[in-house]
Amino acid sequence: MLRKLILLAGFCLCALTQTPATEAQTRLRDVVDVEGVRQNDLIGYGIVVGLNGTGDTVRNSPYTEDTLTYMLERLGVNVQGEDIKPNNAAAVLVTATLPSFARNGSTIDVSVSSIGDAKSLEGGTLILTPLKGADNEVYAVSQGSIIVSGLDVQAQAARETRGTPTTGAIPNGARVEREISYDFNRRESLVLALRDPDFTTAARIEDAINGAYGAQVAFMRDPGTVDLDLRGIQGSPSRILADIENLPVSVSVPARIVIDEKSGTIVLGEDVTISKVAIAQGNISIKVVESPVVSQPNPFASGESITLPRSSITIGQTGSKNIAMLEPNVTLSELISGLNALGVTPQETADIIRTMKAAGALHADLIIR
Q1: Are the C-beta atoms of 247 and 218 separated by less than 8 Å?
Q2: 84 Cβ partners below 8 Å, 6+ apart?
């Protein structure tokens, strides 16, 4: 069956009307980040022991044996010349995120991932592993039992795997040993960085802060940055930030459509509108049937059987039932209803949306992933 999609854009002589964007009320802390207040990534190399025969093999992961040998020698065990087959151990990379203002002795979560040919980390214990930052300095150490959400069951003639058994986590598995020095309370200004830069939202943040203090202390630098002058405000920077981070702000959300072609997911914003457009979906079916006829010779004749071709071709096309007319400034619900009336699939809906955008009839940001 051959299917065609035809989009006809309509024109109207009328003034251009602007539809206001959706305004979501939220807290200031949920839409901005404070410059200098950030997390830091940590990474380390370690060994997981106690596995039930699901660890690395010496042939494919020789570095696991070398690491075990070095670790045992540091503990006073002489294993030089010994043939170690550590199938109950695995080499792993340990990653963690050091929060801002983390202090000595506080704990953080860590993630553990196998880098060898281990089949599963279930039941394993991570041995003391230093975690370093980008400056190659040790900021935390990690150790503990690994929690694995994946499952790997193997029999003689079958194997079943659910999730990823070669990765796991250790809640509160690392202890901070070094603090990142940062004297936040000595700052005379703050820089608020919007997570989604927008002129309207940045202006509303400036107005909300100035209205709360009754003075011009916030200045909009650009759609992604708002500067806050602390010299005219009483209190420490930490106290001031605690006061303003819960201010209500109306966030301007643009009309947007996101299409994920891999999963076939389509997400449409509430304020998506279109101009007058006609959508026609025609179904053309071509059916070819072969019915050969066999011609037999008369009895006792010297002839041969002959196969005669018989072909039947049927062409059908639907009428005008699959044509929909959408009026100007159609809302999201009306657009969905119109597409559902056509009986289109999600993939066809994505094609229609793309073609409407190309025709200039769709008034929204189109993001295709």
Answers
A1: no
A2: 58, 65, 68, 69
The amino acid at residue 43 is I
**Roughly what angle, to the nearest 10 degrees, separates helices 199-213 and 237-244?**
110
Beta partners for residue 143, in sequence order: none
- Calculate the alpha carbon distances from 186 to 167, 193, 233, 240 in Å: 42, 20, 14, 13
Distance CA 368, CA 240 (A): 41
DSSP 6-24: EEEE---------PPPEEE
DSSP H stretches of helix in the chain? 62-74, 199-213, 237-244, 332-342, 346-358
> pLDDT tens for residues 342-364?
666 777 777 778 877 887 777 78
Tens-digit pLDDT profile for residues 181-205:
878 888 888 999 998 888 989 999 9
Written as six digits, the tokens of 356 are 């409407």
Contact 182, 238 (CB under 8 A): no
Structural contact between residues 179 and 104, judged by C-beta atoms closer than 8 angstroms:
yes
| Residue 277, Cβ density class (10 Å: 0-12 exposed, 13-18 middle, ≥19 buried) | buried
What stretches of 195-343 show up as alpha helix (H) in DSSP? 199-213, 237-244, 332-342
Contact 5, 352 (CB under 8 A): yes
